[in-house]
Amino acid sequence: MTPEHSPLGKPAAYTEQYDATLLFPIPRAGAREQIGIGARLPFFGTDIWNAYELSWLNARGKPQIAIATFFIPADSPNIVESKSFKLYLGSFAQTAFESADAVRDTIKRDVSAACGASVSVKFDQPGGFGKLPFEEFEGLSLDRLDLDTEIYHPDPTLLKAALDESPVEETLVSNLLKSNCPVTGQPDWGSVQIHYVGPQIDQAGLLRYIISFRNHTGFHEQCAERIFMDILRECKPDRLAVYARYTRRGGLDINPFRTNFNMPMPDNARLARQ
């Protein structure tokens, strides 16, 4: 169950008949070990997936559509490789179901089994599309800073904080997050929101650090956790939350959220680029 054994980056036959075996789980443990995360997680949170290309047939053969949202707990042992997720959802296209609830229950069962934990699944159907939230991240934009940089691989030494001064509470945001798919090398474009309480973080260093992911290869969830761990170690905040929202690919967007303190979960409002 490693990326090179997945459908990622390989020619694939698209089936439109339901097939749960298309889901390809990848254990989280390997990538976490690389950044010093052991069995006891230093955070909790969720991965929010939005699927915009879900369709099936009703009992009379008429196509139905929905936008599906998945809430995958951060402590699940596995993630699902995104191309396999797309292929799996595509397999519903010519399959008849009695109701939308039957489709949702089927997907919840299959994705929970692949992730090794209970996954919440929410459907929005056409009548509710216009009510879906749409906003931008709240916080102070790091992108306003005019600076030079030439570091395009993650470098935690760029992170600095005023460790000998009184703590502050800030929310900082950037739309300049970019990483690359571990197998195909295709770009993954994202935005990140960082909320913390602790020594004030040097904003120029933080922006350079975010930009340093530009040539990094890693899944969305792994990049968010690396950002969390590097800030935690280098800047020593008492409280930290990292929320990344990536643009969609293949009709899917992936939005990891990690925090070490109790705070409201993100509302899953879509950003303009998504």
From TrEMBL:
Binding residues annotated for NADPH, in chain numbering: 82-83, 249-250
What is its subcellular localisation?
A: Cytoplasm
The cross-references to Pfam families, in alphabetical order and at most eight, read:
QueF, QueF_N
Question: What molecular function terms (GO) are annotated for this protein?
Answer: preQ1 synthase activity
- The active site lies at 181 (thioimide intermediate), 188 (proton donor)
Q: In which pathway does it act?
A: tRNA modification; tRNA-queuosine biosynthesis
Reactions that this protein is recorded to catalyse? 7-aminomethyl-7-carbaguanine + 2 NADP(+) = 7-cyano-7-carbaguanine + 2 NADPH + 3 H(+)
What range does the record give for the signal peptide? Answer: none
Q: Which UniProt keywords apply?
A: Cytoplasm, NADP, Oxidoreductase, Queuosine biosynthesis
Ligand binding (substrate): 80-82, 220-221
Q: Which is a GO BP term held by this UniProt record?
A: tRNA queuosine(34) biosynthetic process
Which residues are in the NADPH-dependent 7-cyano-7-deazaguanine reductase N-terminal domain? 14-122
Annotated Gene Ontology cellular components are: cytoplasm
Q: Which HAMAP family match?
A: QueF_type2 (MF_00817)
Record's subunit section: Homodimer.
Q: What does this protein do?
A: Catalyzes the NADPH-dependent reduction of 7-cyano-7-deazaguanine (preQ0) to 7-aminomethyl-7-deazaguanine (preQ1).
Query: What name does UniProt use for this protein?
Result: NADPH-dependent 7-cyano-7-deazaguanine reductase
Q: Which gene encodes it?
A: queF
